[in-house]
Design a protein that fits this description.
Oligomer: homodimer
Number of strands of chain A: 12
Largest interface: A-B, 74 and 73 residues
Shape of chain A: globular
Strand content of chain A: 25-35%
Strand order of the largest sheet of chain A: 7-9-6-10-8-11-12
Largest sheet of chain A: 7 strands, mixed
Structural class of chain A: alpha+beta
Distance between the termini of chain A: 43 Å
Order of helices and strands of chain A: HEEHEHEEEHHEHEHHEHEEE
């Protein structure tokens, strides 16, 4: 690393990133090599790392505020799936050669807004330059009650499959963002995830297994089934769609493949025992999030999709991993 | 992210990365979205993130085992400076388009070897592809006794400045790697850092402030001075050099600038009160690392270099941040 570049790094940190660490004692103002997190023995520390790359995970001309929010929120979505309340994060920012201070400023404003929104503080990180596209890796930290963290494994035969919010908006929104259709609502759902941070922590003691919908509903429900050594059955007619998505698949039924197989919804899929149904509905109400019962877990393996009780053809399944 | 790429990601994780998480319960076999770290209330969790980019921080044709070791060790060096014993890490791996399974396999072997060497387990991460150069961000975790973590601030007027090992080998080794000179020893010192993980934790209660030498001796001693609101005085004749480096600067004195201003030594610089000198020497002996007394902290600001008692010209200082 050249001296000149490092000089810039120190200035950038002082001007744009140190303010994001203010008030978080263990960050030591980003002036030491390390961050120090004082543990609370009541909780497990929940940790998630995600990377987003310009041109791969976000559009290269995306606003820096949105890039910041997306990079952070994809991690927060995973923490929510784990039942955790987020509190801090580390930022590894590799800046492409054409970066401007204006971009950094917008990026830092985006982080600041989400820090307020989700109750976070920056605890440390690294800023480098890259001859490639701007790349952001975030490692986010949350708390969950000791040994109560939720994972993909743990679903039992007979558990119900539930999902939060609406499915498919982001995949259709990506088509919209690329000019394939017109819908400000869908495009926004793709550009700016809304992680279910209010619902996730309320699932502890309610759901037996969870995942966030980042690979697509079929894939992520399938991950729970695989990890739990079960099959999952999904009734397509029960999958909750937004009015916009309903309109799209009504006119273009092949786009059901995108709805069920596309990623980036950042909703939660959950395996919930029948006797916890009322508890789930109460949790969802308290969280201000809709939940829908879309299927169940059974002996066997794989993902089984039905429409009004009839198995439907695997063309739709081609988008999944198995 | 395309389905095809994600398929590859799942296979890569199962084949090469899940074995690195084996035995670390909170990693859940890398099959859940999150890692869960159970806190020990006797310790603070020490966290450090570093990014290395192909062609910027390592040579593009570097062996993947060496790349893995370097990416991990630059973080371990920071943890050592904090007084922490490392135990786990998160890996964000963005693979350039020309990656091969052979490269990944070598990279994973390099991680495995260093996991054994330093007592680490992989706890989670993210694998993506990038149209740019391969980029690796590691967030490493260590433990230090509660509230005992070392930082750059805390040096007091009159404290002695000490440094571990030898200085300048890496900067000269970079010249060697680029073909500017011939020295297998120096080149190895550049390619493969040896973080002072045995010394760092022994500095708790001995040193008042520490940093690792990653930006260069003058710069990193200067960071301690700045953070401690003091000046630091360094006697060049006391700076410990390897036999190879001594030979180089004897024939090419201008390369003193590289020795004192070049980075990547991954030694430790320490502010140590005089009454702790014997404790430091005992710690160094137990750690199997040499330490040298090279200067002191005083009222004022900045970095002041002397040679046999005379201030020497600031041309040498041009490589630092201030």
């Amino acid at each position: 690393m050249t001296r000149r570049e490092r000089l810039g790094e120190f200035e950038l940190i002082a001007r744009y990133f140190a303010p994001l660490a203010k008030g978080f004692r263990g960050a030591r103002g980003l002036k030491s090599d390390n961050a120090f997190l004082a543990p609370d023995p009541r909780y497990d520390l929940v940790v998630k790392t995600d990377t987003v790359v310009a041109g791969v995970h976000f559009l290269v001309d995306e606003k820096p505020q949105i890039v910041a929010a997306k990079a952070l929120r994809v991690c927060l979505s995973d923490l929510a799936a784990g039942g955790a309340v987020p509190f801090s994060y580390q930022l590894a920012l590799s800046l492409g050669t054409n970066w401007t201070e204006r971009w950094i400023s917008g990026f830092a404003r985006g982080l600041a807004a989400d820090q307020r929104r989700y109750g976070l503080a920056l605890s440390g990180g690294d800023t480098t330059s890259t001859p490639g596209p701007t790349t952001i890796s975030i490692t986010a930290f949350g708390h969950v009650a000791r040994n109560k963290g939720l994972g993909r494994d743990g679903a039992k035969e007979g558990d119900e499959l539930w999902v939060s919010g609406t499915i498919g908006d982001a995949a259709l929104g990506l088509l919209a963002a690329r000019g394939g259709m017109e819908s400000a609502f869908l495009e926004r759902r793709y550009r700016l995830p809304q992680p279910r941070t209010t619902l996730g922590p309320r699932l502890v003691g309610v759901a037996r297994a969870t995942a966030d919908v980042s690979d697509g509903l079929l894939a992520d429900a399938g991950h729970i089934a695989d990890a739990s050594h079960l099959a999952v059955h999904i009734a397509r007619e029960c999958v909750p769609l937004s009015a916009a998505a309903r309109g799209v698949v009504a006119t273009k039924p092949p786009l059901w493949a995108n709805v069920l197989g596309g990623g980036d919804d950042y909703e939660l899929v959950m395996a919930v025992p029948r006797r916890k149904r009322a508890a789930l509905q109460a949790a969802a109400k308290a969280a201000g999030v809709n939940v829908a019962h879309i299927g169940h877990f059974a002996r066997g393996k794989g993902v089984h999709l039905t429409l009004d009780g009839r198995a439907i053809r695997p063309a739709t399944m081609g988008y999944t991993h198995f």
